[in-house]
Every structure is written in structure tokens, then in C-alpha cells.
Amino acid sequence: MTTLDVEVQRGPAAGTSTKGLPGRPRGRAVAGRSRLSFLGVKPGEGRKFISATTLLWLLAAAYGFPVLWFILSAFKPAGELFSYPLHLLPQHPTVKGFVEAWHSFDVALYFRNTFIVATAATVLTLVTSACSGYALAKYDTIWLKMFFVGMLATTMLPTEVMLAPSFLVVRDLRLYNNLAGVIVPTVYTATGTLMFRQFYKTVPDELLEAGRMDGGSELGLFLRVMVPIARPVFVTLAIFSFVWRWNDYIWPLLVINNPHWFTLQIGIESIVGAQNVNWSVLLGASVIGMAPLLVMYLVFQRFVMNTDLNSGLKG
Fold it and tell me: What is the maximum span of the chain, computed from C-alpha positions, in angstroms?
């Protein structure tokens, strides 16, 4: 055994350099640290990072697999939906379910009605939520505190409890059997107000003070300062609100009695028979109704987390 072999087995002597000695995988360790640094992970946190990523992928798979099965099942013939053994991919793909669903009811009319309801309700929800959230976050009066407590109390009531009184109000306002009767009661939401309030709480008061020193009015400060920096909240609430109104079924079913004003969800329910359900048609109609929501999210999701609260501050 040579002297170099003994040095490698026992390790280098004190005060000697390990540079150039064989058997020391320094390049691999440095590469590993470089990859972690590139991902923004400090040395020693790699295991935690991998565990969190794995958990997120598992959650995504748990939520995404049923949706994937649902979409693929819409392309299966009726006889293949309940055949055993079950198959994820269609064995004989077909679009017959979509064609029959499109001709089973007036899809274009119900799409129009649903789009009007969802769009109008979303725009009005954004306006009322932004204004009330700003007032609750930046003004301190006893009346606003009482209003905030009352708003929180409404979140503790089940939706079914408020259906009857809301229906009576709509009827007395002569909004029954009209799209306005579907839109107006859904304009104000405690969720949207809380989202804006919590966001505006994080905005430094120095932004508003600087605007007031420059002679800006309260309305001008709200429109020119607070609204632009709250774009992520606007987009997030717009997505949520549009999805809520698009998928709403119980309230339009109570308020609308004329088929000319039916929304898409009521139209899909109308093709379900009392004794027999054509599942291929029902799945096709459901995918058609879901498609606009998926497109909307893919278009606007990149705006959800983009914000810069310190854009107007110096130092």
C-alpha cells in the first residue's frame, strides 16, 4: 500500500489541504448546494423544501384526478360509463354527448342569461366590496365598527336561512321572474369586503398622507392610489364572484319561473329526467358549462399575485 492510499483512508493530516486528493466528491456537494441556491433554498433546508413540494403535488393530484375523470368521461359512450372494469381513457371516444346536450335545450340563450348575471353581479360586487373595505380599513368611527360587526354576523348564518327573507324582499320590489332579481341580492358579499379590508390594512398610511398633502380629495385618493395597487384583490375576487354566480343554482331556481330567463344551471337540470338520466348528455352539458370558467381562470390567474405595495414609498 502506498503512502497516498494510507492518506486517503485515514484522511488528510492536520494543516494539509484536501485539494486534488481522490475520493472526495467535492464537486457533487458544490453542485447540490448550487442547485439549492438557484431554487432559493438555504443549505440544510432541502429536505423541508422537497417535502412541501411533494405535499403540494399530492394535493394537486387529489383535486385534479376527479376533474380529469369527469372531463374524459364526457367523451365516453353511455354504455361505457358503467362498464366493468372502469377505464380512465375512453375506449371509443365520441362527442355525441356534447351534440345531444347542445340540442337538448337552448344553450345559447341560457349562456347569455348566465353571462349577464355573472358579469353584472361581479362588477357590482367589486365596486361595493372595494368601497366598503377601504372605509373599514382607513376610517375609524363607531358606526363603521358597528357595521363591521353586523357584516361579520351575516357570515355566521347559513345561506338557507336568508333565502326566505331575500325572496320576500325581491317579490316586494317587483323583481321576481327577472334577471335583476337574481343579480341585486348577490351584489354585497362579506367575503369580498373582508378581502379588501385586510389588503388595505397592509397599505402604509404614508401613501394617503402624501396624497392629502398634495391636495388630493378622498375620492381621488381612492381611485388613483388605492384602486390601482389593489389589482390582485380585484382579480381574485372577480374570479371567485364570477364562478359563484355562474354556478349558482338555488337562488335563480327560486326567483326565475319563466324559461326565457333561465340560467345555464337550471337548463342543465331540465334535461335530467325523473326516472331516467342520460349520463353522457348530462356530462357533456356540464363540461360545456364549465369551459368558460376554465378559460377565464387561465387568462387572469397571472394577475392574482402581482402587486407592489411600496411603489409609492421612498427609502
Answer: 102
Per-residue pLDDT at 5 exceeds 70? no
Backbone angles phi, psi at 105, to 5 degrees: -150, 175
Integer angstrom CA distances of residue 98 from 39, 101, 110, 191, 211: 44, 5, 16, 35, 56
CA 227 to chain centre: 20
Length of the chain: 315
Taken in order of first residue, the domains within the chain and their CATH numbers are 46-98 (no CATH), 106-303 (1.10.3720.10)
Tell me if 133 sits within 8 A of 193, measured CB to CB.
yes
Q: Measured on CA atoms in the order 75, 78, 79, 80, is the torsion positive or negative?
A: positive
Q: How confident is the prediction for the chain on average, in pLDDT?
A: 80
Contacts (Cβ under 8 Å, ≥6 apart) of 16: none
Tens digit of each residue's pLDDT (9 = 90 or more) over 19-58:
444 554 454 544 445 554 544 555 555 555 567 888 888 8
CA distances from 305 to 14, 189, 204, 238 (A): 53, 22, 19, 14
Q: Quote the cell numbers at residue 171.
A: 317579490
**Whole-angstrom Cα distance, residue 216 to residue 222?**
10
